[in-house]
Amino acid sequence: MGKFIVNGGNKLSGEVSVFGAKNSVLPILASTVISGNKSTILNIPDLRDVEIMEKILTSLGCSVERIDKIIWVDSKPINQIKIPEELVREMRSSIILMGAMLARCGEVIVSYPGGCEIGPRPIDLHLKALKELGAEIEESHGFLHCKTNGLKGCDIQLDYPSVGATENTILAAVTAEGTTIIRNAAREPEIIDLQYYLNKAGAKVSGAGTSVVTIEGVKNLHDVTHNIIPDRIVAGTYMAAAAITEGEVIIKNVIIDHLQAIIAKLKEAGALIYYDNNSIKVVGPKKINSIEMLQTLPYPGFPTDMQAQMMALLSIASGTSIITETIFENRFKHAEELARMGAKIKTFGKVAVIKGVKELTGAKTTAKDLRGGAALVLAGLVAKGTTEVENIYHIERGYENLHLSLQDIGADIKKID
Ligand SMILES: CC(=O)N[C@H]1[C@@H](OP(=O)(O)OP(=O)(O)OC[C@H]2O[C@@H](n3ccc(=O)[nH]c3=O)[C@H](O)[C@@H]2O)O[C@H](CO)[C@@H](O)[C@@H]1O
Ligand SMILES: C=C(OP(=O)(O)O)C(=O)O
């Protein structure tokens, strides 16, 4: 299972680099199936979720090769339409194969996706949009059998700006007949990256990053090379690590625009932040300020994927902070683990009240999900004594060698397999 052992107390300092974004690379790898041609994807992070996506593509018949930070996918030889259940259960993003495979093969069989347990994660919006495009979807025994004789562009109003539903719909629409308009689309930077990849391959997608995305169907896609954008959540996690340890860390290879909501809240907490084109320096305050209201929202609001890390930070703030989690129904599992380390946190449904304490103390803790696990590591960096974080396979879904990067900037952390 693997665990991290963290001895707290070191102020972090130095430079750390951020690799490609998990939430960008996964839908882009899924979309490589559409073209029936070759995709070269650069800046690939070394993550468990990426390995699973590689396995899914291979199981469908794609030829997939990976050397270091590059993956080559040739989707010409696809010869399967069923995605292995055990792989789908491992990862939420596998559901994006639905739109991509409908575009490529007109058929796909997939089970309900797994992923982190952060509350119910229905896929009703995905299914509704795909049906509007002309997919027939039969559900039985936990499997979804999706088929079409040809998707047709249409106007789709999403009831909520779901990231996954926006991506699935874009992919299904890329080779559909006519024009599709997605209204109330998610505006996350990863959708812009997806549009960029698809357009380089010959698709006609516009509007990504706004709430109206338009896709003019094209007949074919061609070979493409694409560089994945840096991971804003990994960057945010290192920023929080600098802030919580009273450190001074430069985070390189970031897109500042994608970090604005995180920058604003870390400044409120008292961190000093300086940036230039693609790097950001965070200087942690002597004492963290409490934050009156931190509310997670769809982009460009504060990202839910940084909520747990901020909770760790605020647990040693000078007063009481309130976090409202509006995206997921049950994303406070880290609160009870932080409490083992002396944090004073009460949760009431979607609201958490965090009464800052003078210091955290090292304890045995368990990562319950990806970002909650990262939050425990952050807490461990500042806690008195030793913290163990078990079940780090959750963390490895989204962080490439977190312990090594933190060691490089002075943390006392090791991994035990
Ligand atoms: C691989 C990936 O990119 N994952 C990200 C993606 O997840 P994901 O794409 O799953 O997130 P969504 O934006 O779809 O979900 C947001 C909310 O909408 C609800 N919903 C979603 C779809 C649907 O059909 N019905 C429905 O009710 C979800 O339960 C959730 O409460 O965006 C989330 C919100 O920024 C991030 O936390 C995840 O890291
Ligand atoms: C919830 C997350 O990811 P996923 O949607 O892949 O489960 C995350 O990255 O924090």
UniProtKB/TrEMBL annotation:
Its EC number is 2.5.1.7. It is an enzyme of class 2 (transferase). Its main location: cytoplasm. Pfam families: EPSP_synthase. Phosphoenolpyruvate binds at K22, N23. Pathway: Cell wall biogenesis; peptidoglycan biosynthesis. It is found in: Cytoplasm. The active site is at C116. Keywords: Cell cycle, Cell division, Cell shape, Cell wall biogenesis/degradation, Cytoplasm, Peptidoglycan synthesis, Pyruvate, Transferase. Residues 6-403 form the Enolpyruvate transferase domain. One of its GO terms (molecular function) is UDP-N-acetylglucosamine 1-carboxyvinyltransferase activity. It catalyses: phosphoenolpyruvate + UDP-N-acetyl-alpha-D-glucosamine = UDP-N-acetyl-3-O-(1-carboxyvinyl)-alpha-D-glucosamine + phosphate. NCBIfam families: murA, PRK09369.1. Cell wall formation. Adds enolpyruvyl to UDP-N-acetylglucosamine. Belongs to the EPSP synthase family. MurA subfamily. This is UDP-N-acetylglucosamine 1-carboxyvinyltransferase. It comes from Tissierella simiarum. The lineage of its organism: Bacteria, Bacillati, Bacillota, Tissierellia, Tissierellales.
